[in-house]
Every structure is written in C-alpha cells, then in structure tokens.
Amino acid sequence: MTSPYPHLLEPITIGDLTLRNRAVMGSMHTGLEDFFWDIPKLAKYFADRASGGVGLIITGGYAPNKRGWLKPFASEMTNRLQAQRHQQITGEVHEAGGAIAMQILHAGRYGYTPFSVSASSIKAPINPFKPTALSTKGVEQTVNDFARAAGLAQKAGYDAVEIMGSEGYLINQFLAERTNQRDDIWGGTSARRMRFPIEIVRRTRETVGAGFPIIYRLSLLDLVEGGQTWDEVMELALLIEDAGATVINTGIGWHEARVPTIITQVPRGAWAWTTARLRKEMAIPVCASNRINTPELADRLIAEGTADLVSMARPLLADPEFINKAAAERADEINTCIACNQACLDHVFKNKLASCLVNPRACHETEIVLTPSRRKREIAVVGAGPAGLSAAVSLAEAGNKVTLFEKNPHLGGQFRLAMAIPGKEEFAETLRYFTRRLEVLGVDVRLGTTADVTTVAGFDEVVISTGVEPRVPSIPGIEHPKAVLYSEVLDGSVVPGKKVAVIGAGGIGVDVSVFLTHDPSETLEDWLAHWGVGDPDLHRGGLTDHKDREPVREVTLVQRKTGMIGAGLGKTSGWAHRAVLKQSAVTQISGATYDLIDDAGLHLTVNGQPQVLDVDHVVICAGQESVRGLYNELVAAGRPVTVIGGADVAAELDAKRAIEQGVRLAATV
Ligand code: NAP
Ligand code: SF4
Question: What's the CATH superfamily of 472-622?
C-alpha cells in the first residue's frame, strides 16, 4: 500500500535515535509536570500519544534549577530522585512504541516568582516580578545546571533533550539587546550574547556523549523591539550546530510579543517561510512549528523542503491518534486542533490543568474513561450543536445505540455560526470530525426532525441539547427592519449595509464586528503587514510598522458596561481580538443606554448625552436564552432526561463546556 503522507511518515535518524516518522509532538506545559504524584497521569497522557503513532514526543519544560521555575514549585529536573520517577514516563512511552525527549526550560524573567533571574534586571511587560541579574558566576552555574539536567534526563530514559532557546525565556533574554545589557563576557556584543546558548549546548554535549540527540529550539523571529537580526539568528544557528546540536527546532515570537503566532486567526503554516530560509543554510535537520494542524500541510512542508520534521503540540493534544489515522488513510477522522487556546494555554495561564476544547479527555485520560456499557441502551439525543454532537459520538463510542434528532436540515448548531467568523474557519474541521464519527459509529441521524415527547417515547434515556436562541432585548423599536440578530448576519440570511452598529460587546459582538469589517480578499502577506511583521533581513526581530486594515464597513460596537470592550475574552487571544478591532477602525462605545431604533438609526445616551448613530443596520449580540421546551415537558412527564450545553446554561454558552458535558455524560451513563 502506498503511504498517504510519504514525507511525513518517512523515518528519520537523529544522532543515535531513529524515529518512525517525522511528526513531533512539540513541547507544551499541561500542569501535570509540576508534582510527582501526577506522573502516572502524565505517563498515560504521553503513552496514549505514543500508541497513536507520533514519531517523537517532547515534554513540557523542566527547569534546570529553582531560579528557572515557571512559577513556585513548578517542574524541574535537578536530582536523581526526580530522574528515577520519570522512568515511569519514559517506560510507558517506550512500551507504547514511542520516543520521548525532555525539554529543559529556564523561565528567566518569565518566572512567576519573586526570585526570578535574567541576563539583566529588566522586568518583562507580562510579569509583575522584576528579575535579579545573574552574576557572572551565576551564569556559569546555570550553564552547568542545563548540562546536568540533560544528564539526568538521559538517566531517566529519555531518548533526547530539547533546550528551550525561544519564546522569550532565559536563553532568548541573553541573546537580545532588549534584555541583555551586561558588560561582562556574557553581554555587550552579539558574539558575547550568543555565548550563553553555545556554552549550554557544548557542555550538554560533553555530558550526554556523542550520539544522544540534542534538539535546540531556536527563536527564528523574536517579534519584539530590540530582538535579534536575521544575521544574528543565522550565525547562532550555525554556532549551535557546531557546538553539538542534532536538530534545530524553530520557535516564533516571544510570549510578550504583540503579534499573534498560534491562535486561529494566524493562517495555517504562516511562519513556514522563515523555517525554509533557515533550513537552506543548515546541515542538521530542521523542525517547523506553529499553526500546522493537518497531515496534508505537514507532509507538504517536508516535501517542499521547508523542514525535515514537523512539530505539532496542540494537534496531538486534540487527537492522540493523529498519526495512526493519517497513516491508515483515515485523516477525515482526525479531531483537528482549532487553535482556540481555550482549554489548553488559557487554562495553563490561569494555573488550571490544560485540556482541549475538542477533546476534553486530554490530560484527563485516567479520569474520563469511556467504558463500554454492559447493556446496550437506546438513547435519544435531541439537538445536534456542539453538546449534542459530542454526546451522540461519545455515547455511541461507549457502546450505546444512539439516535440524534436535529430540527434543521444540517448538523452543527452554533458551530455553523462560529465557522463563518474570519479566523474561526477551523470550526468547520470540528463539524467535519463529528459528522464523520457519526457515520463511522452508525449513529441514526434524523435531520429536519423536530423531536417531541412522542418521538422520544421508546428510548431508555433522553439527552436534551437543544441549544440556545439569541436574546432579543426590549429596546424601543427592536421590531424595526434595521434591527437584525447576529445569527441572521452570520448565516447569511441578512447582508448588512455599509454602516452598522453592534449592540453587545461579548465574544460574539466582537466576532461579529470582525466579520462585518473583514476584507475576504486578505492574503498571508496582508495579514503579516497588518501585524507589522516584516522581512527579518531588513527589520530587527522581524518587526516593522503595521499597516491598518481597510474595513469593508463602518462599524460601531456598543456596550452598556463602562469597562473595556472585550474584557471577558480569553487570556491568550483576547488582546489580539481587541487589536483587530483597532486595526479595523471599529468605533467602541461603553456605558451606553439604548433609547430607540428607527429610520434614523440607533439612538443612545452616553454619559448623559443623547446621540444618534446613523446606521443601516443594528446587529443584536445581546447574549442567548436556553431552549428548554422539550426538557421541561419531559421532566413534567417524569421521564429520565439529562440536559447539556446551551440548553442547560445559556450564559457562558461555550463550546468547551458543551463538548465536555457530552463526553462526561457518556463516561457516567
Ligand atoms: P455574552 O458574552 O454574554 O455577551 C452578551 C453581551 O450582551 C453582554 O456582555 C451584555 O453586555 C450584552 N447584553 C446582555 N443582555 C442585554 C440586554 N438585555 N440588552 C442589551 N445588551 C445586553 O454573550 P455572547 O457575546 O453572545 O457570547 C456568548 C459566549 O460565547 C461567551 O460567554 C463566550 O463564552 C463565547 N464566545 C467567546 C468568544 C471568544 O472568547 N473569542 C467568542 C464568541 C463567543 P452589556 O450589558 O455591557 O451591554
Ligand atoms: Fe487546540 Fe483549542 Fe484544543 Fe488547545 S483547546 S489543543 S487550541 S483545539
């Protein structure tokens, strides 16, 4: 049989290690790394990915010393007992046929601790703690600590180590003028700033011996002012190769950069051009990363010579079986990462255990287990939005006979609206995944069927996932033809005029404003220009002046609250959504009272001053109400029934909770 993705699935040898394919599960902190009692969970999490076929797994970051902690008592690899405990992880991964590298990460000034250190004592804009500058001796010791951590990782049974030299952590802080203002042998000129990572790689090589793979994660584009020039990046890459690195993995942007690098609105493969430029100059293999989430794209990047390996962290969180499915020509069954960050990075930044919006079992593998039901129950699921799709698929996976009723002629509910938003097109992949899984599992799908009490009469259990309907606020003139619902705009049944007011600035109001202003002809080059990303050969750190968007409509986004618009959006993506509103010249009004909608437009009062927005349409994004008619009837009739998703709680309507409720329900039925 010919391989469907011959380049991605081709083995590669790095040092003494032969990987069964070129797919790497990139490093990602989950929160399971920090305490030894979570090691069994972490081992299971990685072993599932190893059984799923990925070539190499890279762990979340482990600090080489306490000063390198990401937060108090965070993960570290500093002694033999820790190395011994890690043997459970490496053992289970090896048993599952995989290979695993441990990442060594010193947080530097990103450490959320009062005793963090850096090259110089300069506070990071994203951390309240100001670091202490390492002494010259302290730098020497830190270099040794990196090498020692690598040696311990080797003893723990890891197949390789990755040295984290990107994303703005300590090594980057030594490399850039922005953060390294030292005047000893570790600072001053670019050659001296480079000395820190070169020494780390050199001493690590001395410690681990000749064939043990050392992966160095290199910051290709810093995307911050005072970052490295392209010449410096290239020079460093070659020196790192000489110092003994086996593979160069690539990183884009410091955490403090104000350019989105991995969220959904970043076009797929947006950074591959930088990797291709580096690879041309290197003798050792190069790994591409960031916004690569399909086997097609990964295979193409290798085929085109952009990279030798492809790193996908979140896509493997979303689907542990990613590679097996790709290899078995079942790529249409891959649960694709939609780059939302909602359950992974947003959780980590809030000190919560990471998981995945589309795969709530991620990092909960030992807790959420879909065991086959002893008796095959007949279950009706009513409503095929995110919650209903998740419940139907999970209940069927647990061995139940499921019938899914949907009143519309298509599946998807709120997914269909979400995927219309520019930069959220990836939701279409989630819908494709569920649709395919329903087919594979043989779920009886009844589209265009409004279920009532009689329809569901013969079932053992009924799950109500009838979702939500948009809230219609009682504003005078709400029945005027200028007033339209966000659902009508996003499903294309209403095409708003050139001047639009948006009422309600929650997640959907912000999304609708982006939808209304977005120019659909935007290319990758335009996207990079809007975010001020320039040719790194010409601009230090790859950063230049940004080019404003040319909005296709004039939009005013209004809320009653007095605070900042979009304040409740996700931690890792909210700032980027707010920046797009600014780039698109969306006028923002807070603290408004809605007085009237009429032929003249939207009448408001702001700070006691009445005003009229002369608009063609007023789009209502004022939240949602649960649709619970059938649920209430079934409860009244004493029928066993469970309600999930937006029908359960409309406030905080969110695909993450909806999908998780569906999966957890199947794990308990
Ligand atoms: P939402 O976040 O609850 O926002 C609706 C907004 O409408 C409220 O913030 C409120 O703001 C306003 N509102 C509520 N009742 C009103 C009334 N009677 N009259 C006028 N205005 C009223 O709801 P959403 O925007 O529909 O989003 C729903 C959920 O989807 C969110 O909770 C979020 O979880 C998810 N979502 C998230 C994102 C994202 O993070 N990027 C994107 C889309 C959706 P004021 O009272 O201040 O006017
Ligand atoms: Fe991807 Fe979102 Fe899952 Fe994170 S939560 S892995 S970004 S789908």
Answer: FAD/NAD(P)-binding domain (3.50.50.60)
